[in-house]
Amino acid sequence: MADRKKVIEIIRAIGVRMEECKDELTQLDQPIGDSDHGINMARGFHAVNQKLEQLADQDIGAMIKSVGMTLVSTVGGASGPLYGSAYMKAGMTLAGKTEMNQADFLEMMRAATEAVMQRGKAVAGEATMLDAMLPALKAMEAAAAAGKTTKEMLADGVTAAWAGTEHTKDLIATKGRASYVGERGLGHQDPGATSFSYMLAVIAEAYC
């Protein structure tokens, strides 16, 4: 699916997308959070991109783990620890690898999703990024089991992620800052689910 050069390309592209979506993510965060999700994600990936050249000779696991460590140290609020944990755990599944295939990618996504569940002490249906991550993982696992190509698998994952993101408008948040507003959060799309969906979309686009 991807070698080290492709992974660097994807990480850089995610940073570009976070910058492009900075205002949108921040606006989504205003009614239910600290109004800084987009700003924080853009800042975090800017820091990541500054380190990419230093990572070029490392294995894919080390690259992705480094992304997580950088996000933890530069992204504020809950997003830093959650995304940081996700990337670090994902990187651990790819330790020593210089290429990543479909099975590797799925294992990485399982680890990332589990990390967010553990760190955030959250499950599906609580209006968090997991409401995009879990449907995306389920859809991609089903696609792989059905023998679909990686391109088709990623497309199914992106579709499921955005559907899950849209569904967060119908959920009452019970975790994080959004839980403080209770039912007033209904109708508002979760910014974390949105940023995750953008990340997965970037991966799908890069593979195509």
Give a structural overview.
- With 208 residues, the protein is mostly helical.
- It has one domain: DhaL domain (Serine Threonine Protein Phosphatase 5, Tetratricopeptide repeat).
- The chain has nine helices and two strands, in the order βαααααβαααα.
- The chain has helices at residues 4-20, 22-29, 37-55, 60-74, 79-93, 102-120, 130-145, 150-167, 191-207; strands at residues 2-3, 99-100.
- It has a two-stranded antiparallel sheet with strand order 1-2.
- The model is unreliable at 177-186 (pLDDT under 50).
Which key terms come to mind for this protein?
two-stranded antiparallel ribbon; 208 residues; mainly alpha; Serine Threonine Protein Phosphatase 5, Tetratricopeptide repeat
Count of extended strands: 2
CATH arch. level architecture:
Alpha Horseshoe
Low-confidence stretches: 177-186
CATH class label: Mainly Alpha
Q: What structural class do the secondary elements suggest? A: mainly alpha
State the domain count. 1
* Overall residue-averaged pLDDT value: 88
CATH superfamily: DhaL domain
Q: Sketch the topology as an H/E string, one letter per element.
A: EHHHHHEHHHH
Portion in strands: under 5%
According to CATH, what is the topology?
A: Serine Threonine Protein Phosphatase 5, Tetratricopeptide repeat
- What does the radius of gyration come to? 16 Å
Tally of contiguous helical segments: 9
**What characterizes the major β-sheet?**
2 strands, antiparallel
Short note summarizing the structure:
The protein has 208 residues and is mostly helical. It contains 9 helices and 2 strands.
